[in-house]
Amino acid sequence: MPAIHRFALVIATLTVFALTGDRVTGIVAGTAETASPLPVRETSSPPNQNIIAPDESLHAVRGAVSAPKKKRAVASAPKQSLLSVVDQPDILPRHRVIADALLRMMPSHCLGTLRQFYVRYDAPETRGLAGKSTLIVSGNVSDDEFRALLLHELTHVVDLGCLQGSPSSGKSGFRDGDDVFGNDDPSVAFYSISWLHERILKQDTRAEDFVSGYARWDAFEDMAETVTAYVLHREGLMVLARRNPVIAKKVAWVEYYLFPQLPTVAQSAYTWSTTPPWDTTKLPYTWNGVESRRNKLAQFAE
User: Fold this and answer.
1) Is 247 helix (H, G, I), strand (E, B) or coil?
2) What is the longest distance spanned by two Cα atoms in the chain?
3) What is the pLDDT of residues 222-241, one digit of tens each?
4) Tens digits of per-residue pLDDT, 23-58?
5) Which pairs count as long-range contacts for 46-52, CB under 8 Å and 24+ apart, including other chains?
6) Residue 83, SS3?
7) For the chain, which end, N or C, has fewer CB atoms within 10 Å of the first or last residue's CB respectively?
8) What is the strand order of the sheet 195-197 is part of?
């Protein structure tokens, strides 16, 4: 999703990416009617090696740690402070709390991957952008949509900036701009379920093999949409997985590499059918995550 204001803010954002070296991946803000064409399918002839994501592919709980046990009648443990990357004065308190909780949900070894975090309160043309270590998201949405957007974009950060392969494993057929993924990169195991290359679908893929229409945009969005569905709509996603072996493989990857012991933090209010929704960040749900009480207190501070 595009980045900061048309003039000064655009320049500021581009400066950030120039400094961090990030490519960023955006999430489409509209509907299927406003989206660009779907990826090229694999054909019987050799794939076009020059097909890459377009340049708008400038890509992308534990909310609070429970208090330790008290020793006899000693004073209660201090409150957990927010992570410094989200605890910024120009971000609303409730958005800081949501971001802190989602970051702490991610694999612990990925916690320091996000280094630049921005919440926009102007009028962004798109709702979110993310790269290897940078994330920009709109704050002009409901808290539920903000959380879903942030979860989607954080997946890009983890995917591109944290999960890494070894050069000695050889180059895979997947790349993000000039960056080529190694064969043993954990992300490649996910991409390879439905994709021949980052924007070329395997010949036998079907629409129902994806959790949303937007997941078919490219391999990166496939992962981000699947993770969003897993965290916020897990019960419905597991129903899909029981009848679709491709979805089941994607769910198994999410549970193995990202959330081996994630408790249920949301209750989906969306009725899943054989036709996938367009965008998982727009689906209704009820959040039960442990930062809920802290977030209510944060709203009084705004």
Assistant:
1) helix
2) 74
3) 999 999 999 999 999 999 99
4) 555 544 443 333 334 444 343 333 333 322 333 334
5) 47/196, 47/197, 47/200, 48/200, 49/197, 51/197, 51/199, 51/200, 52/175, 52/177, 52/198, 52/199
6) coil
7) C
8) 40-41, 200-201, 195-197
